[in-house]
Structure formats: structure tokens, C-alpha cells
Design goal:
The structure is a homodimer. By secondary structure, the first copy, chain A, is an alpha/beta fold. Chain A folds into two domains: about 210 residues, Glutaconate Coenzyme A-transferase (3-Layer(aba) Sandwich), CATH 3.40.1080; about 260 residues, Glutaconate Coenzyme A-transferase. Chain A contains 18 helices and 25 strands. In chain A, the strands form seven sheets. In chain A, strands 1, 2, 3, 4, 5, 6, 7 and 8 form an eight-stranded mixed beta sheet that branches. The termini of chain A are far apart. At the A-B interface, strand 4, helix 13, strand 19, helix 14 and helix 16 of A face strand 4, helix 13, strand 19, helix 14 and helix 16 of B. Chains A, B: Pfam families: AcetylCoA_hyd_C, AcetylCoA_hydro. Chains A, B: Keywords: Transferase. Chains A, B: InterPro entries: AcetylCoA_hyd_C, AcetylCoA_hyd_C_sf, ActCoA_hydro, ActCoA_hydro_N, NagB/RpiA_transferase-like, Succinate_CoA_transferase. Chains A, B: It comes from Acinetobacter puyangensis. Chains A, B: Belongs to the acetyl-CoA hydrolase/transferase family.
Chain lengths: ~500, ~500
């Protein structure tokens, strides 16, 4: 216990055990917890809750910023605690429960959750559990490695449990910028015009009387599990770098490209990491998660500032950044996810959004979430917040998966998360398709020519040619449109004959 | 000719005939023309262009605000003038050419066209043809019944042709509010916080030296072709009114509901018209097109202010409004479509967007554009601009079409324009489904229970039940998902047996 981290002395008597805190969470409650892409989640209380539920079953609606680390979604699922879960997850056990219809999962644009609560369209949390590095002298909460939805959860909830993580340095104080939009109908513009603008407070301002318990933990965030760049991701990065160079030369992008956003995960991280070897200087990010690539680019002298709502780092980069925080502290900022992903700011700043597709089709529709149109992977996350309002909406994926059994480019996607109207650029290691200003038939041509793996190109071209004979603005053969997915479900590979046999 | 409408005398010598103006449009040019939903389009020059093309063929890329009136899209298509067309159309002849692959149609969010031109992502017009009521003493262009994309087209084009419409009263001067966002990276917030804020100029500010020709016309806009309300549209309106009353009672909406947007067309117009008989007062609109319903609500004392980018009225309402402009003039305003549909403003103001669906599926995905996934109807228009960022994204449609051969509620939509993440409320004359905060399986339940026509309910329930046995977050049977559309294409009706035979 480190009582000096509770700087408002009158709160010292609120210190309780994680078990006591978990008792404050009742069956049927809506619980708002901190945590965004395995960063800054409350750790002790959810674990105690899972333990408690094994003896005394209860169900809650759990709302977070995004995914939790430390296997908490797994533990809560196994303990049967989750009736409902939103707005994003990445856990195998929880995913299985979602796909079995056991947990009701609401897969939501990450900028919208607290807006819907503000407007009472979503139930506000009965109780919030927020990880903090400290409680300020005013009784305000200073978050740890993510802001996510924590600020609004603490503001909306009647009761707040604070988990002070003593394993996280108090040096983080000052990194956060908490801005809460005002209520309609008198809402004013979000006053941010540059990625490094500071528009809010460094702590979450609440009435300290709402703090019903303070718990200590000393568990670090789970390290990021991103895989290192490989030949394909470097290929994707190279195509993008060439594209950006052409855009700068044509006067369509400034020399520093403008604010970059990169989705969570190995591919987007690897792609951005590939920018170390580009000619671009003075890069800036206005993104959701700050991953290893952000700090790689800072270290390489390529990036001068990054704004995000959480930081999800590998062991190596975690040690480097948290071990040298004074060096990095003026180079990044953490904001609420409502602000990092805000449509108003995405459009104003002219963000270049780089997100990962699960699959896309010949007309530029992107599936980010559903395997074969039915099984949830992780969720849409912030990709829609960015793609819809971005200066450039870019989606990247490797051209094939599962050793070639799956083509990431298909006749018709089995689920649409980003439609033809919202997608500007598609990139695989094979090449890049620039869809801007093109009609569907023109898009099909550049996508088939540039993005498809050779093992699938002939079949896809054949589908498109035969569809064109039927006609339509967006030619399709409805009887065949989903056949590749049906083949995958039934035979384990998308084509009638295994594509490996056909590839050179 | 009315030279007094050219108030900058040095421009008097720019008056030319429509034929001379049409000669300024060369083969291969990108041409930006005024006109939005059959309002305020240049009339004499495109007609002269179509005539000329019959003798001397040429192809252009034609970009407008939205659809043109006076059969101009038909005439230009028949004359073979259109190589490319964007961003919206409603003409039968043009539609056929688009679906035959003869005209490349780019179906775009209406707020994005000039933004993409500003950033040089879309080719800027070589020449702009803009209808005006007059040219000001400073040589600036005062638009007629729509602003649409006219301002940015005139700003971007090297050459501008002005068509002065003497059939439109100069009394319209002062109705327009032209605001152009600044360039990135120093763009500032759009300074609009209330629907009746005036943030721009009353005329389009350009260098008058760019005006290469001034043509006179005296043709009125085509009257709106909206059909009158019927039992189904009144049923949809009643469901919506009940829903809004509940929202107000629950404190989720203010008493005047907040700014309303209604999509172009008979259904949305009829639905809003139905609000005359509601208890709501002091309604305001922040919409794209101001249709009859806007002025009906103003006349009924229900609506106090309406902001739009064009006015598309029936003969009756046109006579009433233009015949009594002094009475209406302080009650509405016309802005560029980039501003009427701006994501920043849609989110800030908390707009309630009411748009028409062609079909929606049991999970809440909406198709607004493609018949059977392939054939373009009109285009997405502004529905995506509003739905994605709205306080409430509402889609309305009659539950069946073509005498019952088509169900508007299907297992899986054949094209997605608005996905499950963006759609809040679905309404047919059967009932209303409130999807907020629901997981896909929960959405399917309320949609099947509330929105489906009885003739299709059993089949849809059967599909859903069998899909659930297979499992998944979003259960589907891929082999059957598009079968209703295949049936429609092959047999002319969606079910294996004609639904009329099954309905009571």
C-alpha cells in the first residue's frame, strides 16, 4: 500500500481489499471499467469478481474502452459473469462465448459508447472501476496507460472504485488530456486544431465523494502480442510508401503526410514500422492506440508527436519507454477515445487512417469483423470512426491466409463494416489499388490487377467477367457471390480445388 | 435579357447565347454544374450541349450537387455526352446507361465531393456552369434554389459560365449562406452551433475575371414528384411519433426533438408531413433538401427554422413559398451541401436523420442503393453523411413492395450502404425496431417481431432459427442468405410460393 498516492487524505479510509470492492458489484449491474487494448485496465477487482462469481454466481453488463489484458475477459467469461459485453474484445474464450450466443456482444464504433451514454441511449454504469496512478489532492483520478472511456464512466457512475497501480510510475502524470464534450443543444466545437493541442485536464474531474473504494494493485499491463514485421508486411509498407511519395509529389499530401492513424494489431504496426526506412520526416500521429511502431518512429527521428488514447507496447518497448519517460514525455499525449476517434477531428485534421481488413471484395467493400459472415473475431474498433471521416481510408491485409486456403480478396464480402463509399485505398503485399473517384467496374479492375494473390486471380477475373455479362452498376452473380465462403466452411478452402495446387 | 441582374456593368459584354456557352465545353472536360435534387440546375447550357453533341459528339465528366431536373440527365445521356457522372442521379434513362456499364457513375457521400476536390483527390472542374438569380456588384454569384456544390465548383474552375434565371425572383437574395472550410493543416472548426447560425456570405465569392460567359434562362425548376402520404406512410409516421414521445418522456430527447433531417423522396417527406398531427412544437430542421413537408410544418406553426442546401417543392408548394417569400424568408436558409451534411456539424448538433431504405436485414444492415445487389437506383445521397454521425440514425420503408412480391426485410441485404454499427432505428408501417445497444441476435428478434410484413414473418423466423442452430455472433446460412433475391430475379417474387397466396 502506498497511501501517498492518495493525495486527498480524507480518502485514505476508503482503502479496501479487491474482494471487498468486488462485493460492491451486484448482480444485474452495468459496470464501466477502464482498459483499452490491454492497457490500463483495472486488474485486481475484475479478478476478485471472477473468483467471487464461482461461489456466488452473478451476471453483469461489462463496458470498457476496448479489450482487456491479463486474461481478464477469459476469467470473467469462464466465471459466467458476462451477460453483455461491449464495445470490443480480443479474447479467445470470450469470442467463443459470443459466437455461441452466450454473451451478448455489442460491437460498436469506439467513439460512440460514451456519447450514447451521455444521451441516455445506453444505460450509464452503475459503478465504474478505474485504474489510476494516483488520486490528486482534489480527489481527481489520474489514469495509467489508457484513458479510453474511463473519464466518462467515472463521471456517469454513481459509485467509483479506483484501483491504484503502484507498478506504474507516477511520472505518467501530465501525459493525459481529458476533454469532455458539452451537452447538446449548446455544444461547442471541440477546440483542437493540431495533434499536440492540449484542450483538457490532466486528471478525471469527479466529486471525490463518489469514490466508494480504493484498491491497490501492482500488476503490469500484458505486453503487446504483435508479431514482428515479415516479408509481406514490409511489402505492404513499401507499396504504401511509394503511394505516399507519389501523393506528395502530386501536391495531394504535405511532406509530412499529415496525421497518421494505425489500427491495433500486427499488420498495421508492421506497416507503420516500415516507415522508418522511408524519406518522410516530421511525421505525426492522431491515432487510437500507440503501439511499438509509434516509438520506433520517434526513436528513428521520423515522428515528432503522437496523440492516442492508450499505449500498448511489447515487453521490449514497454521497458524502453517507461524506463525513459522523461525522454518521451513531451512527444505524446493520451486522450479519451471519444476525442482520439472523434468524427469532427478526423475530418478537420485530415487523418490518414490505416486499418486492417479481414477481407475485401472486388468493389471495395471491407469486412473487418466476421469470419464467413457469422463468427466474430474482435470487433470493428475505431476503424469506422476513422475510415468514414478520414482524408484517406486505407485498408491493408495479406492477400492470402491459412497457407493459401483463404483469399483475402473475394467476389463479395460476407459482412460489410466499411462500404464502397468509405474505402479509398486497398493494399496487400501484391500491390495497391487506388479507388478514389472510380465507379465499381473500374474498382474491380484495379483490385483484381493489383491486390489479388496469383493463385486466385484467374477465378476472380472469371467471376467478374461473367457477372458483367449479367450487368448492373455493381455486377454480381448472386448464386455464386458467397460461394468461396461456403467452400471454406464446407471444405476448408475457398476454391473448388485447393489453390496451392494451382499456384506457381 | 435583364441586364440589371448583372450588377457589375463590366460583365455586360459577357452575355452570350446558350449555344455559344456550350461551345466552351470541350471533349474530355470535367464540368461542374449547379443543381441539387432537381433544384437550381443550369438549364439552357446543358440543353444546348446535348443538342450540339448530336452533331459533334463529345464526352464529359459531369459533376453536380445531386440530381438534375428538366430531364437534363436524360437528354445528356441520350446525346451520349456522359462518360462519367457523379455524385447522385434519379433519371430512368441515365440509370439504364449506368447499369449497362455505359456511364461510369461514382456514387458518393454528398458531403465529400468538394472536399476531395479541395485535396486534389478528385479532378477539379475545368469549367463550372452555375445558375444564379443575379451577379452582384462585386461580380459574385447569387445562387437560385440550391447551393449544392456550386460555390466550390465556381471557386475551383478556371472558367465559369453563369446562367441567370429570370423566372426566379431576386427576392431570394439573402437566403444563402456560403461558407467554405479552410485548407488543412490549419483548418479551424466550422463555427456553426445552432441551425439558424449564419456563418458565411450571401453570394459565391469568385474573381469575376473567371466569368467567361453569361447566359439567360427563364425555365423554372421541375416540380417535385413526391407522392402524397398514404396509409403506410402515415403508419410509419405514427410509429415514429410514438417513439419520439417516449424518448422525450424518458429525457432522452428535448421537447422539440432537436434538429431533424429527412431524406429526399416520398416516404421521408410523407413521414415528416405526418408530424403536423403530433404534439411537438418548435421543431427545427438541419437537412439536405427542404421539401413540401418543411413548409407544411412551418405553415402549421410546428417548425420554426429549417436549414438545407436546396428546396425541391411540388407545384402547389412552389407557388405558395415563392409567391410569399417575404413571409418565409426568415424561416429558412440554404448552405453548401458540404456544410448541410458535414460530419462535424451532424455530430455536434445531434441530428435525427430519417432516411429511406430500399431493404434492410434481420441484423440491421441497410441497402439504400442497389436492387438485388447489382442495379443502381439513385445513389446513397446524404444518407451516409447523416446516419454515420447522427444522434439517431433512422431508416424507414414500407414492409413490402411490388404488390407483395418483395419484402423490404430480408435475411441478408444484397448490398450494404449503412451497416449494423450505424443504424439505430428501423421503421415500417408494421412497427418500429429500436436497435440501440442490442447484439445481433437481439436485433433480429425485434426486427422480425416489429417490422416484417406478416406474409414474410414465418419464413424469416424460420431462416433465423435455423441459422442460430449453426451459430455465430451474427447467425447466417450462407447457402440461403441471398436466396430471396435470387428468387426475385428468377421468378419475380422473393418466396418460393407467391406470398400473396399466404397472406391473410
Amino acid at each position: 500500500m502506498s497511501l501517498e498516492r492518495i493525495r486527498l487524505a480524507s480518502l485514505h479510509n476508503k482503502v479496501i481489499s479487491a474482494q471487498q470492492a468486488a462485493e460492491l458489484i451486484k448482480d444485474g449491474m452495468t459496470v464501466g471499467m477502464s482498459g483499452f487494448t490491454r492497457a490500463g485496465e483495472a486488474k485486481a477487482v475484475p479478478q476478485a469478481l471472477a473468483q467471487r462469481a464461482k461461489q456466488h454466481p452473478l451476471k453483469i453488463n461489462l463496458i470498457t474502452g476496448a479489450s482487456l489484458g491479463n486474461d481478464l475477459d477469459k476469467q470473467l467469461t469462464e466465471a459466467g459473469v458476462l451477460a453483455r459485453r461491449m464495445p470490443f474484445q480480443v479474447d479467445t474464450t470470450l469470442r467463443r462465448a459470443i459466437n455461441n450466443g452466450e454473451v451478448m456482444f455489442v460491437d460498436q464504433h469506439l467513439s460512440e459508447t460514451v456519447e450514447q451514454m451521455r444521451n441516455k441511449q445506453l444505460k450509464r454504469p452503475d459503478i465504474a472501476v478505474i485504474e489510476a496512478i494516483a488520486i490528486s489532492k482534489d480527489g481527481h483520478i489520474i489514469p495509467t496507460t489508457s484513458v479510453g472511456n474511463s473519464a466518462s464512466f467515472a463521471i456517469f457512475a454513481d459509485q467509483v472504485i479506483v484501483e491504484i497501480n503502484t507498478a506504474v510510475s507516477e511520472e505518467l502524470e501530465g501525459l493525459h488530456d481529458i476533454y469532455i464534450p458539452t451537452y447538446r443543444p449548446t455544444r461547442t466545437p471541440v477546440p483542437l486544431t493540431k495533434v499536440d493541442d492540449r484542450i483538457g485536464t490532466t486528471a478525471i474531474v469527479i466529486d471525490p465523494a463518489k469514490i466508494v473504494g480504493i484498491v491497490f494493485n501492482d500488476t503490469l499491463d500484458s505486453p503487446s502480442t504483435v508479431t514482428p514485421p515479415d516479408e509481406e508486411t514490409q511489402g505492404i509498407a513499401n507499396h504504401l510508401i511509394n503511394f505516399f511519395e507519389d501523393e506528395v509529389a502530386a501536391g495531394r499530401l504535405p511532406k509530412n503526410l499529415g496525421p497518421l492513424q494505425a489500427g491495433i494489431g500486427s499488420i498495421a504496426n508492421a506497416v507503420l514500422s516500415g516507415f522508418q526506412h522511408s524519406s518522410f520526416e516530421d511525421l505525426v500521429m492522431y491515432s487510437e492506440v500507440l503501439q511499438d511502431c509509434t516509438f520506433e518512429l520517434i526513436d528513428a527521428g521520423k515522428m515528432k508527436f503522437a496523440s492516442g488514447c492508450s499505449m500498448t507496447l511489447s515487453q521490449k518497448y514497454g521497458d524502453r519507454v517507461f524506463g525513459n519517460l522523461a525522454h518521451y514525455k513531451d512527444k505524446f499525449i493520451l486522450r479519451p477515445q471519444e476525442i482520439s476517434n472523434h468524427p469532427e477531428l478526423v475530418r478537420r485534421l485530415g487523418i490518414i487512417g490505416i486499418n486492417t481488413a479481414l477481407e475485401f471484395d472486388i468493389y471495395g467493400n471491407v469486412n473487418s469483423t466476421h469470419v464467413c459472415g457469422t463468427k466474430m473475431m474482435n470487433g470493428i474498433g475505431g476503424s469506422g470512426d476513422f475510415a468514414r471521416n478520414a482524408h484517406l481510408a486505407i485498408f491493408v491485409t495479406k492477400s492470402i491466409a491459412k497457407g493459401g486456403a483463404i483469399s483475402s480478396v473475394v467476389p463479395m464480402v460476407s459482412h460489410v463494416d466499411h462500404n464502397e463509399h468509405d474505402v479509398d485505398i486497398l493494399v496487400t503485399e501484391i500491390g495497391l489499388a487506388d479507388l478514389r473517384g472510380l465507379a465499381p467496374r473500374e474498382r474491380a479492375k484495379v483490385i483484381i490487377e493489383n491486390c489479388v494473390h496469383p493463385a486466385y486471380r484467374e477465378e476472380l477475373q472469371s467471376y467478374y467477367d461473367r457477372a458483367c455479362k449479367i450487368g448492373g452498376h455493381t455486377p454480381h452473380i448472386l448464386r455464386e457471390a458467397l460461394q468461396w465462403h461456403i467452400n471454406l466452411e464446407e471444405n476448408g478452402h475457398m476454391l473448388a480445388t485447393k489453390p496451392e495446387a494451382k499456384s506457381a
